[in-house]
Amino acid sequence: MKVIAVHLDRCTGCKTCELYCATERGSNGKTLLRAVQERPLPQARVRVEGSNEVPVAMQCRQCRQAPCLDACLTGALRRDGESGVVVIQENNCIGCWTCTLFCPYGVIYPWPQRKIALKCDRCVYMEVPVCVDVCPTKALELIDVDQYEDLLRVKRAETAADLQRKNRLDGALLLDLVERAGS
Amino acid sequence: METIHLKTVDPISQELLRSASRQGLDLPWERFEKLQPQDGFLRLGLSCPFGCLQGPCRIDPFGRGPAKGVCGLAREEMVAGLLLRLCLQGTMEALEAVPSGDRPRAIRYSRALGAMVSQALAKNDQHDLSLDDIFKSSMLLSRPSSTYWQLLAQALRLSLLTLGFQEQGALATTAPSLPCTAGYATLAGRAIRIGLCGEPSTRLVFELGKEVRRMTTTPAQLVALGSWLELDGRFLPIACTSGESELLVSSGAIHLLVAGAGTDPGLLSLCEKLKIPVVVNGQDGDAEEIVGRARKCFESRSQSDLFGDAPPVPECQVLLSASTIVPASGWDLTGKIGLIGGSDTPQLSLGKLPADLAQALSEKGLQLAGWGDAALWVLKKKSASDETALPFLALANRQGPLAAVTALAGVDKLESLQGICFTGMKSCLELSAALGLAAIGCRVSVATPLPIQGSREVLDALSRLLQQNGGQLRHSDHPADARELTEWFTNP
User: Fold this and answer.
1) Which CATH class is domain B183-299?
2) Where are the domains of chain B?
3) Which member of B317, B393, B430, B480 has the lowest number of beta carbons within 10 Å of its beta carbon?
């Protein structure tokens, strides 16, 4: 299953992902300059949160055990068999927004004007999600969850190299902690 | 490369693009692609333009994020403030073109333009214009303390001021017209070529002209890269449009670049990469030494006649002043007239819109004149096809359509003018002039989106202000094509 990953070190908080998500997925006009004239205003499925220091683009994590699926009373939320992505069938959504309360990340949004809930479906019918496509710093990336192990391996190797470079000082501290815990 | 026709319609430019791609050179089109999508807040005018360091602030166009800046500024004032800032920049550019000894405190308009400006001011209940308007606009933009109506009204005043400066900054010549040649055919044959870009000093152009004429063993040539520069009673040959400048330099056909004011940094970087000597504005040096550097570059490179097969463009006469346009044009003033012009833009395939629009309007019976890159494209198209009958008059780039408008107003035939279309915009001067023309009652269309779409209220208010004097500024949320612009021209 593919999900959208966020490189925290690359996100500048520019909100380009928000603008173009709303335009591509929420508007009829499909261009930014048209979308801003539409009513109700198109809404984005990704939100940039955090501070200037640590901005982060947040969207649905497509949880493997998604609480929103259990919470949905009408079956409007379902998992797409092929992609594994949790999608919302707007026709079945009654706007009770129970799912928005159950989402542990707070990334399912009520859309009162249209009386539905709004969530990222990773632009499952597009080759690349629009937020990934437009991100000017490539902070958003589409990755396969099976790649997690590869990514973690790289991260472990980087950490090991970093410890070596610092003459194992951090490592010594860790050992010290272990010894203390043991005693 | 399969999208090459989306970059330019000129077959030689397309060939040069392929060559540049093989060399791995970064040209404006590649940079434009890498910039996509461009900053959405700026494109909408929702990034605060005021001179303030509390921000940067911006407003969420979709209503879930911030609706106001730190100071409480709302979206209407933000959008109107940006328009004022752009107009202020345009006015300063127009003022820069006025000879410094000729800058009065009160603006001197020609009789025809003065009457139109007075009427525009009277309709909006405004007092006379002066240079103080520039100062006042700067102060309005220091902190947000005005309503969007006030900001828009001030932007309109500046745009009228721009027209005045444009008129005063017209070429100081008594000739009714100057001859001009254009296109890649001007580069046929072997020669040391010095390319002039932007607005180099007239003294340097004159000195270089003298020096080039002295060259006998190897011929030397001054060519303009998208600029309209006068020398010895004619315009320098314009080898390419402004949008093609980097493309031409990438071909190696230019042996030294004189970078006048307004030259793009990308052109300078390209010259550095290709080891083409550059003379930067203000560091003119000695003309003999400059030509010597060009010769050295010429001799160090293998020379091939890249442009020997380029279709020749017939020499045209560029009409210069309002007083001579009507008699020199041969226009039937009972018929319809359309003006098209403006700069190249990477948002549209270079040359496509001007050439298609001129053709379509001509077929609809409009008499046409144009300026800037758009005019060059229409002239180039005339040579490339057999449609030499396409009647088209070239106007001096510095005044753009203004000279034609005042000429028609001078003979009380402004109603013949169906519209003025800017097929692309590069500088704020063009925006300010377009707004000024709409403010004096003309129908003006801009083919590319303006960064003021973020507020419907501001767009409506601007339309209403212009309508008070019968003017219109048409622009839309997408780059326009020839069909919709033809429709706009022919259905007032």
Assistant:
1) alpha beta
2) 4-34, 183-299, 316-490
3) B317
> Is the peptide bond preceding residue B37 cis, with omega within 30 degrees of 0?
yes
CB contact under 8 A, B62 and A15: no
Q: Does B2 touch chain A (CB under 8 A)?
A: no
Contacts of B57-63 spanning 24+ positions with Cβ under 8 A = B59/B454, B60/A15, B60/A18, B61/A19, B61/A32, B61/A35, B61/A36, B61/A41, B61/B454, B62/A18, B62/A19, B62/A22, B62/A26, B62/A35, B62/A36, B62/A41, B62/A42, B62/A43, B62/A44, B63/A41
d(CA B94, CA A75): 64
CB pairs under 8 A between A and B: 56
If DSSP codes are grouped into helix, strand and coil, which group holds residue B61? coil
Are the beta carbons of A43 and B64 separated by less than 8 Å? yes
User: Which of 123-152 (A) contact B at CB < 8 A?
Assistant: 134
Q: What is the fold, at CATH topology level, of the domain defined by B316-490? A: Rossmann fold (3.40.50)
SS3 B49: coil
* Residues in chain B closer than 8 A to A32 (CB atoms): 37, 40, 43-44, 61
B64 to A134: CB separation less than 8 angstroms, yes or no: no
Tell me whether the CATH fold assigned to B183-299 matches the one assigned to B316-490. Answer: yes
pLDDT (tens digit, 0 to 9) for every residue of chain B, 492 residues total?
A: 457 778 899 889 999 999 999 999 989 999 998 888 889 999 999 999 999 999 899 999 998 889 999 999 999 999 999 999 999 999 999 998 887 766 666 678 889 999 999 999 998 888 888 889 999 999 999 999 899 999 999 999 999 999 999 988 876 666 788 999 999 999 988 899 999 999 998 889 999 999 999 887 888 999 999 999 999 889 999 999 999 999 999 999 999 999 999 999 999 999 999 999 999 876 767 888 999 999 999 988 877 777 878 888 888 889 888 888 888 888 888 899 999 999 999 999 999 999 999 999 999 999 999 999 999 999 888 765 555 556 788 998 888 899 999 999 999 999 999 999 999 999 999 999 999 999 999 999 999 999 999 999 999 999 999 999 999 999 989 999 999 999 999 988
Q: Give the distance from residue A111's alpha carbon to the nearest chain B alpha carbon, in angstroms.
A: 11
Any B CB within 8 A of A30 CB: no
**Two structure tokens written together for B396:** 């001096």
If contacts are CB pairs under 8 Å, which of residues 50-69 in chain A contact chain B?
none
Chain A residue numbers with beta carbons less than 8 Å from the beta carbon of B60 are: 15, 18
**Nearest chain B alpha carbon to A33:** B477
Longest pairwise C-alpha distance within chain A = 68
CATH 3.30.450.20 matches A2-144: no
